[in-house]
TrEMBL record:
The lineage of its organism: Eukaryota, Fungi, Dikarya, Ascomycota, Pezizomycotina. GO terms for molecular function: protein disulfide isomerase activity. Its EC number is 5.3.4.1. Keywords: Endoplasmic reticulum, Isomerase, Redox-active center, Signal. Gene3D superfamilies: Glutaredoxin. InterPro entries: Thioredoxin-like_sf (IPR036249), Thioredoxin_domain (IPR013766). Belongs to the protein disulfide isomerase family. This is Protein disulfide-isomerase. Participates in the folding of proteins containing disulfide bonds, may be involved in glycosylation, prolyl hydroxylation and triglyceride transfer. Residues 25-116 form the Thioredoxin domain.
Length: 365
């Protein structure tokens, strides 16, 4: 990594003016020693991923959290000392406590929510007056209604909260009667979920998986391989127009909820993943097709794309009233295959970044 960072100093792009306002090593260390909370973005200003973060980063302002940007081009030794190997990397440093890595979408609203939930207690104590407002405080909220002296359930819930506190918010109430339960509120999809089985960890893990699964997945290089095997069918909407894909998700939301247990709805940038079109039996640059993930059989949809029409089409696919596409029935327009790993993909509100997602290994430029 050091060789990569130092090579950027000699690269023509590095000579261009960049808009990132970054701190020197001494300033960074002063911030970390002085402030209770310091939100740090480690960037390589010349890279497009760091450039994409810049307008979002500029809008992040909190009176109780200092924001600092570090250029790993200008201060490679500092980034190596902090074990930063991907760019951009975002971390919240807490004085005299371990730092917390940010793993969400690189959008200001998501980053601010991450800071909010990190500053709050791992589990917020609630009562009848506060539980309603807390249930909508974040995109995903878990609230445990625990029977008094149920230490086992509290222990399981506490471990769950510690593991996921950077992504979701957690609260608890106590009750003198009934069984301990955990409720999950997915405020993105408007879908509540709950479990009453708190005698072991697996029901809680299943609750997390179920509650946080979005109705739609945007196919990118992180989500390309699924996992999608739990659904009987996958419904692909392919278009090279981002606005069209967003409009499809909005119009099909009620249908996606209706078929949520059976069919996974996926949106795909057909300009980037054009080679999927002939696999789905779609002759043009956009279209809709259902696919059986077990057999690979495709069911291309022909007709006007609207909620009622798509609903009827999906019911006919489930009921085996539609035959799978015969690959010999026509020859689609040839398309150029694009390497799914060679471009920066768009992310939706559910996508997560690990620090090692971008530029894990570098060659000299």
């Amino acid at each position: 990594m050091m060789r990569f960072l130092r090579s950027l100093l000699l690269h023509p792009l590095a000579a261009q003016a960049v808009a990132w306002q970054t701190a020197e090593e001494s300033e960074v260390r002063q911030h970390l020693a002085r402030n209770e909370y310091t939100l740090v973005a480690f960037v390589v200003p010349e890279l497009k991923e760091s450039k994409a973060l810049l307008p979002e980063w500029k809008t992040i302002h909190r009176s109780d959290v200092e924001t600092v940007a570090v250029s790993c081009t200008a201060t490679p030794d500092l980034c190596q000392a902090f074990d930063v190997v991907s760019f951009p990397t975002i971390r919240l440093y807490r004085r005299e406590r371990p730092m917390i890595r940010y793993r969400g979408a690189r959008k200001a609203a998501s980053i601010i929510s991450f800071v909010d939930r990190t500053i709050r207690p791992v589990i917020t104590s609630l009562n009848n007056d506060t539980v309603a407002s807390f249930s909508s405080i974040d995109d995903i909220v878990f609230i445990a209604n625990l029977r008094e002296e149920d230490e086992s359930a509290l222990g399981l819930f506490s471990r769950l909260a510690e593991e996921h506190r950077d992504r979701y918010s957690f609260g608890k109430m106590t009750t003198a009667e009934g069984q301990s339960q955990v409720h999950c509120y997915n405020n993105i999809e408007g879908s509540p979920h709950n479990t009453a089985s708190l005698d072991r960890v697996s029901p809680l893990e299943e609750l997390v998986s179920t509650c946080t699964e979005p109705l739609f997945r945007n196919i990118n290089r992180h989500s390309f391989m699924g996992p999608f095997t739990k659904w009987a069918f996958l419904l692909y909407y392919l278009s090279d127009d981002k606005a069209e894909r967003a409009a499809f998700r909005e119009s099909m939301r009620p249908i996606a909820k209706m078929f949520n247990e059976t069919i996974k709805f996926l949106t795909v940038n057909s300009g980037k993943y054009a080679y999927l079109l002939p696999d789905m039996g779609i002759p043009n640059d956009k279209g809709l097709a259902a696919c059986n993930p077990d057999t690979g059989e495709a069911y291309p949809y022909q007709g006007e794309i609207g909620p009622d029409n798509v609903s009827r089409f999906l019911k006919s696919v489930i009921d085996n009233e539609v035959k799978p596409w015969d690959k010999n029935s026509f020859v689609p327009t040839p398309v150029q295959k694009v390497d799914v790993y060679d471009e920066y993909d768009e992310y939706d509100e559910y996508d997560e970044y690990d620090e090692y997602d971008e530029h894990d290994e570098h060659d000299e430029l």
